[in-house]
Amino acid sequence: MIEYSNQTHYLVAVDCIVFGFDGERLKLLLVKRGLEPEIDKWSLIGGFVSAGESTDEAAARVLKKNTGLDGIYLEQFQVYGKPDRDPIERVLSVAYFALIDIHKYSAQINADYHAEWFPINEKPALIFDHETMVTDAWKKLRYKAALHPILFELLPKKFTLPQLQVLFEEVNDMKIDTGNFNRKIKSTGLLIKLEEKDKSSSKKGAFYFKLNQKRYQSDFHLVLNVFRSSK
Amino acid sequence: MIEYSNQTHYLVAVDCIVFGFDGERLKLLLVKRGLEPEIDKWSLIGGFVSAGESTDEAAARVLKKNTGLDGIYLEQFQVYGKPDRDPIERVLSVAYFALIDIHKYSAQINADYHAEWFPINEKPALIFDHETMVTDAWKKLRYKAALHPILFELLPKKFTLPQLQVLFEEVNDMKIDTGNFNRKIKSTGLLIKLEEKDKSSSKKGAFYFKLNQKRYQSDFHLVLNVFRSSK
DNA sequence: ACAAAAGTGTTTTCTCTACACCCATGA
DNA sequence: TCATGGGTGTAGAGAAAACACTTTTGT
């Protein structure tokens, strides 16, 4: 096989920053690293890119392999390419952030794999430059969520407006006015109101909503701007 | 040297989508490829990542080497990682978009290097997946420019409001109302009005402005929203 | 009946849009 | 003096923010 001469080849990895939301706090999925160096230290879910797959495919495969999760929202957001970021040899890492419904998968994750959820502000020390990746991914998540309705990926199929509001408040680290929030969300036309109520957190109960998938697909670019508010 | 065993290594390249603006049209800087395969075909400015440098450094180096340009706005935006995107062997490409003041550098580029500016809608066929990269980069540029004041990078030190407006219109492919545009731009506090006027395009002449560098640095996140308008 | 959460209405404030208008100047 | 592009002013529509108020229901 012909090659480009005299050029150095590198390992290429993918690392996934997996976000989840348990109804109260934004969480991060971490695993104990399975190979040297830094074996058994906490790490992002990652792996090397294999010969036949694209980086996107590698990220999906690695997620699936480490957690059993499939069909997850994945978005490539940054390459970490400093020469010395891995002490063994040069490895470039393509970082992805992933959004999953924590309830749907948490049992499975804990039973079959050695992954664990951490509140994003109480995570353990991470290997290499993974802390930087998390910081960058969170920033990117805020940025993206401010403009596009991606946070629904973090919620169950059925969810209530108060739940949604808590999620927005958590991600953006601010209080939001309920009245304005409800009006804004409803005006997007992204939600379909269900008959059923969630009575777990109040006497009155809050109506469940589900995503209007059609609109969600077509209006993905839509600008939300559910910010500024209260105080 | 210790290595991770049994993993495939790849070549890693950087490719720069270089945007320029001549006062009328958005342009793209292309070079004739200097190596096989596809030698002498039009290509983005790119090169392989060397052992001691980060991808960001590689992009800056490659830009400098191919054009003489230094200190240019460069932003990594996407990895192109399909296994077969290069026919010779697997090469991952980290794509960057660059914004430069076309006037400052155009003479130099044409004289010393074999790079050429093309209006973005009249570019020649490009090698590999470079057309896709250009499309993606342009989309990213629009997206980013809609929110952040990066377009100033495309203008000379001194520029007029009408020039700025044409640039916004060109990038976003829409007409903008002059009154509203001026008001909005001025309200950002990013511009400093100069004494001098540009009389080249009207009898009355338009005042030159320069960037308030301090504010530009600190308010980089600032949301512009100079859109919707006219008709 | 009352506490507590869900959800609605309403006022005030601000911003955006459209467009009319004035300005400066060379031909 | 008039044509041309530069630049300002302003009324009306619409959206955002603040917050008061109503609804529901378990205890």
Automatic annotation (TrEMBL), chains A, B:
Pfam families: NUDIX, WHD_NrtR. Residues 9-140 form the Nudix hydrolase domain. PROSITE patterns: NUDIX. InterPro entries: NUDIX_hydrolase-like_dom_sf, NUDIX_hydrolase_dom, WH-like_DNA-bd_sf, WH_DNA-bd_sf, WHD_NrtR. Transmembrane segments: none annotated. Coiled coil: none annotated. It comes from Pedobacter chitinilyticus. This is NUDIX domain-containing protein.
